[in-house]
Fold:
Amino acid sequence: MATPRTDVREPAVDDATARTLHERMLLIRRAEERLIVACADGSLPGGVHLYIGEEAVAVGACSVLTDRDYITSTHRGHGHFLAKGGDLDAMFAEIWGKATGICKGMGGSMHVADVSKGILGANGIVGAGFAIATGAAWGAKLEGEGRVATCFFGDGAANQGSFMESMNVSAAWELPTVFLCENNGVSEFTVTSTVTGGVLADRARAFMPVEVVDGNDVLAVRAAVGAAVERARAGGGPSYVEATTYRIRGHLEAEQHMLGGGTYRSADEIAAWQADDRDPVLRSARRLLDAGICDAAELERIDADVRARVEAAVAFAEAGPPADPELAPQLMFGPTA
Amino acid sequence: MARKRLITAINEALVEELERDPKLIVFGEDVELAIMGDTRGLVERFGRDRIRNSPICEQTLTGMAVGLASAGYRVVLHLMFNNFIYTGMDAIGNQMAKLRLMTGGQMELPITVVAGYGGGNSNAAQHSDTAYSVLMNLGGIQVAVPTNSADAKGLFKTAIRGATPTFFLEAAGRGGEMGEVPDGEHLVPFGRATVAREGTDVTVVAIGRMLKPTLRAAKALAGDGISAEVIDPRTLVPFDEETVLASVARTGRLVVVDEARDRCSAASQIAAVVADRGFDSLRAPVRRVTVPDVALPYASNAEAALIPGPERIAEAVRSVTEKQFA
Structure:
């Protein structure tokens, strides 16, 4: 794993932006904490892969994107969806398998997408987003309106061959693709370093500018992705940003029931990443306090508002009608000429 | 009407659609020089923004087609040989076939993938598969197998204008065949078979490149007093069940000729449909004439021995016309 740079000075953001970034990270955190409960109590038809601990990556990156920019997401996509402006009610209804879901209950947790907001979908195939983002970036370049396509992927996906292929096309054709690696150190249930040769960032260095940042620092991510996006919009081609972060929950919820008592990392390691000075949400809260942007009471009020928002989404999801089984055959094929 | 080579008809379809829709993009393996001739001359006419050679990386090419379509473009992706779909399979099987459904209908993917298929050219097994059976099982993928110049043009144009990922499979090495093509705008709908030869004793469904040897067999059989009706399905997904069932209702017999390997071939599917929906019409067992479950060898004689030809087809037809259920 490459060491994040510490010499990049974080550009100042105004108070309102700092607060918005914090709120958005907190929304992802509280929404997913609620999904832990829903998963455990059997409310959800399928599994969920949670993003807790990585919120700063999605929020920092999407804070420099607009609805007209494209993102491709991963199987761990709730955070990307919410950070890019996806609707929490529609996402929860989807995860609950309801007709009111963003994908009408046809996709579920691993496939939340809102094409109208440039969210080309979470994806159940590790690494599938490389090529989709590259294709969307090509479209953006042909269109010439300065859109960019950001590909969120993990260190696990970086071992797929299409990582190299898509970086190659993006570099050869100078496409506005931002390859954003969320390096959380694990590939599903396997420690990535045990299956990876060399340094991931070096793979990208062969093709494009590279920046490795502290992925648990929302401002650092915002600055690095901001520079990459600015370069892409200006016709400067693709970039690679690697955000060093950590996945607090398992590959998927309730995984312990599937692992036969085995483990792939220690409780101490997980706890270390949850410390006040490492957890992205706690760090953001501390920064708001230290900078005098919020006092403790206001932080508590923000949290209470977010929790209320999450409970409203649960109520929306629960109240929704079940998915329509007739819809599947109707949706399979598009209209013909 | 004008007589045109099959490959010229395909090229014409592309030119017309590229002129019609500025958001149509053609990319893929060697589309600028075009070894099959289908995309030749397009880059000079429409420029490299719209006609573009890609690197050889099918896994990414198929995914890029999905991304480009998501960004509002119509896409023609050329994969050269249909064996290469195996390398590009994730975005075919997991993405383009499924994303419309998985996104609740948000994603329309107007993607047409072009590739040559089939044997008979000593290209050896990795360039000779008839891969439509694989595609037929994926779900949201349409498959066209044109047999003549007019259908090639009309089906291609329909595929390009549609909103569903479609595989347009060209019989490799058959681009030089001549055929009449209607003048002016010519679109052929999907899911409509044609009767290539009328007959009364037996229905023979001949897929793609198998039409020609089947018609030859039908001619020979006519000399023996056996009247074979030959149906060209034109598209396998969607498949025109009604035309086949109506024919079988008259003839009482079905033979399906397919260049795919026997197991789970298109012929197997068509035979099953008729068994399900046309059982009462049948007066003899359904016969499939296919490639055995082996890879096609390189040597011309060894290859030819495996691909259905007029003799094997005629023999299958005779076997069902001689047979009759009590």
Notes: Chain A touches chain B through 50 residues (CB under 8 Å). The CA atoms of residues 44 and 151 of chain A lie 28 Å apart. Residues 15-246+268-319 of chain A form a domain with the Rossmann fold fold (CATH 3.40.50.970).
